[in-house]
Amino acid sequence: QVQLVESGGGLVQAGGSLRLSCVASGSIYSINTMGWYRQAPGKERELVASITNGGRTNTADSVKGRFTISRDNAKNTVYLQMNSLEPEDTAVYYCNADITLWLKAPTRYWGQGTQVTVSS
């Protein structure tokens, strides 16, 4: 079994910063792309940023210049550094990872989500 566990969410004032972490655990053979999505109330889940195991990143225009995704392959961990937070960033943030188990096809796994609330 694979688990993705997020941490680092919380309540912060506008202009503040938070750092989200997501650790993948289990009988993992390899991890390709890892990413962060978010879902605000009444809205669809949207991509925030993703990063390949080679370090290539893709960041949504709405957070470009404020959020930075990174990963530690040795620790199976992906991070999201969020600076200059705005009330519009309020959402549940989910991490995902494309994981290959031993002798299995790659599968996308999701974390349980962590709440980020930005007050004005």
Principal-axes geometry comes out as elongated
Number of helices: 0
Which parts are unreliable, with pLDDT below 50 for 5 consecutive residues or more? none
Proportion of residues in helical segments: under 10%
Report the biggest beta sheet as strand number plus sense, adding barrel if it closes: 7 strands, mixed
Order of helices and strands: EEEEEEEEEEE
Counting DSSP E segments of at least 2 residues, the number of strands comes to 11
Q: In angstroms, what separates the terminal alpha carbons?
A: 40 Å
Average of the residue pLDDT scores:
97
Q: What is Rg?
A: 14 Å
Question: Would you tell me the structural class of the helices and strands?
Answer: mainly beta
Q: From the structure provided, what is the oligomeric state, counting identical versus distinct chains?
A: single chain
Strand residue content:
over 45%
Give your account of this protein's structure:
It is a single chain. This protein is mostly beta strands. The protein contains no helices and eleven strands. Strands 2, 4, 5, 6, 9, 10 and 11 form a seven-stranded mixed beta sheet that branches. A four-stranded antiparallel beta sheet has the order 1-3-8-7, with no helix packed on it. It is elongated and about 50 Å long. The termini are far apart. The mean pLDDT is 97.
Q: What's the SSE blueprint?
A:
Elements: E1 2-7, E2 10-13, E3 18-26, E4 28-39, E5 46-51, E6 57-59, E7 67-72, E8 77-82, E9 91-101, E10 107-110, E11 114-119
Parallel strand pairs: 2-11
Antiparallel strand pairs: 1-3, 3-8, 4-5, 4-9, 5-6, 7-8, 9-10, 9-11
